[in-house]
Amino acid sequence: MIPLWSTWAEPRFFGPTFLRIGAINELYVWDEVSVAPFTVEVWKDGASKPLLAARGFSVNRPLPVLGAAKKPLLWAAALVCPEVLEAPGPVKVRFLTSKGELLHETPSQLMPRNFPVEEIPLSPEMTRLRAKPDPRKDREAVAIWAVYQRFEPQFHWPGGRFLLPVSPIFPSSAHFGDVRHYQYADGTSSRDYHRGTDFAVPVGTPVQAPAPGTVVLVSDRMLTGITVVLEHAPGVYSVFFHLSKANVKVGQKVKAAERLALSGATGLATGPHLHWEVRSNGVPVDPLDLVTDGLLDTNSVSAVISSIERVIH
Length: 313
Prior knowledge:
This protein is mainly beta. It has 2 domains: 12-114 and 295-312, Sandwich (Immunoglobulin-like); 117-281, Glucose Permease (Domain IIA) (Distorted Sandwich), CATH 2.70.70.10. It is built from 4 helices and 23 strands. Strands 12, 15, 16, 17, 18, 19, 20, 21, 22 and 23 form a 10-stranded antiparallel β-sheet that branches. A hairpin with a 4-residue loop joins strand 8 (89-97) and strand 9 (102-111). The longest helix is centred in the C-terminal third of the chain and has 15 residues, at 298-312. The radius of gyration is 21 Å and the shape is globular.
């Protein structure tokens, strides 16, 4: 029997049958009373530790009466994001109390995903920026990682689809997950993958907020140039690199479509473009998924929970 935490009335759980690599996968817990704090872990068979873990957070908008529920349901979510380089295969998704007690377990599957490969030659200056150790790069990496680890366990805006950060007339020049072979000027090379989506835009192109959020970082960084980071949800951040100018300040709250910055070619950039990156729990995920599928959309969540409520009642 799966133990239930005594402060919960009759919690119900949803974990998807398939987990997409390099994407935000939404998991839900709901009840007639407030949902207590919980975490989610993803395990591979025979592993000594979880593949990944995510904290749950409450969503401040009750769902309407569903199925046989006698009053609006209160719900919470966790966002599970397998990294691009994870191997596909079967996993178990476990919902746990804050004390580590098992609430619910469901089988799932990491789905395979293929990404294109590209060769990128770098000039001597670009080689130096990318490959040479530098204390400033180290400090800036620590600072931005500290931002990615922030977690405010409340989700306040209505959710839904993201906007593109620039006009759709501008094409994508590089895609999320592209495997990159960097060819350095000294004849050596390295392998990495692209953690965002690039748009071929001229310097000075307006960059807008793809969704509501709070500005949590504005900085001129060695590798990424003028950088703006926007927090949308607990652990979910939009990141904009290589800007020519930032139009916002740390702590500022912005609405969707509000101007954040102007695009540029600062930092380690081979030409003018906008790099848009989305991270969830520190993991890079495909930003364009949020444009097509959205994030914690009330109607979509209601449809999922309604179908489960009809089955169990």
